[in-house]
Amino acid sequence: MLRKRTTGVGLLLALWCLLILTGCWSRVEINDRAFVTAIYVDRLEDGDYELSIGFPLPNRIASGGGSSTGLGSSGGGGGNPYTIVTKKAESIAIALRLIRSDLSREISWGHCRVIVVGRKMAESGVNPILEFVAREPNFHTKSYFMVAPNRAREISYLTPVFERLPAEVLREFAKRKVTLDTSIKDFLESAATDGDTAAAMLTIGDTEMLSEKGKKSTWVGTDGAAIFRKDKMIGTFDVKEMRAWLWLKGKMRNAMISLKSPTDGKTISFIILSSKAAVHPVVQGGKIRFNISVEAEDDIMSSESNIDLTNPEQILKVQNMLSRQLKGRIQHAIRKSQNMGADVFGFGRLLNWNYPNVWKEHEEQWLTTYKKVEFNVDAKVNVKRTGTEKNPIIRQFHR
Prior knowledge:
This is Ger(X)C family spore germination protein. By secondary structure, the protein is of the alpha/beta class. The protein folds into two domains: 29-237, no CATH class; 238-392, GMP Synthetase, Chain A, domain 3, CATH 3.30.300. Helix content is 34%, strand content 30%. It is built from 14 helices and 14 strands. It has helices at 2-20, 58-63, 92-101, 119-124, 127-135, 152-155, 166-175, 184-192, 239-248, 312-340, 347-354, 356-362, 366-370, 393-397, and strands spanning 33-35, 38-43, 49-56, 82-89, 106-108, 114-117, 144-147, 196-208, 216-229, 232-237, 256-260, 267-284, 287-303, 374-385. The strands form three sheets. An eight-stranded mixed β-sheet has the order 4-3-2-6-7-8-9-10. It has a four-stranded mixed β-sheet with strand order 11-12-13-14, sandwiched between helices. A hairpin with a 2-residue loop joins strand 9 (216-229) and strand 10 (232-237). Helix 9 crosses helix 10 and helix 11 (347-354) crosses helix 12 (356-362). The model is unreliable at 63-76 (pLDDT under 50).
């Protein structure tokens, strides 16, 4: 009898569970979603914000799309497999509301991996976009943050020759480490500590493209870096200085560097296989010093010189030249950041981690102190392989 009663109670509980399992009340079907791939934010002359959002067009992606120039059109067939929707308003939130009112689908942020801000927006302060992103629970804070040389919206016009969508081109720049891979997370962490940071700087232009039947189309590439003090852009790094940032972060790899041969001044090119960096703060006698050690392994990619690559003494000379070149570039980038008064390399955070009491003494005036900090840079580059061709082919013809 007890067993039957227990079974009856179990059935009632099971039925009750079925009744309350009505599904996810807030679910949005995939066919009702508009997936964001990139956000472009500009600050206009009148103080308003211009928000542009990139979306893929699933119906055109399935059919292969058409020409990839310009913006996506609203007509059927032969158009781009993406579109950009733009609105301007007194705030980013209001501009977003205006965009939503024009869409037939619900915006989904889960696929957005790139945020581009215009130069004026960067110089006036990026806190509004950081505030918006931080409060949106479905937004990935690992999305890459980049700065346009003029207006961010212009970047959305790029022709994605090798990729399907413009956002994929920008994302690959950061993933391949051809520029800085600064993310929203980096900016939020910097803001939490009143720190400084650097973000990728883009460049833009028009050129005739064979893939577009010789028509002039918009191309976008990488430039240097935008330097931010707190949330405002205060200056820039050129490409060599930006690459020094990659060296100090241990992110420089699969890149090419060149130098003039010690024998005849002709070019020898190397490809960087790997790199690593170590930064150690030292406090002695009330003075702050940072010891920086950078190591890299290179392969010789090509040589126009008559240098004998089988001679260990010549290889040692080349290694020393590469090491001096690397040391000089890092020192130059650090000095420039000191002159700017922007600790974009995060040395203050390392000091706080290793010497918290010392940091408390200098925290309030750290940027002033930073300008006087001493840096000892030790760079060591090893040429791992000289390639299967030990000497340039042209040298064999002159034997």
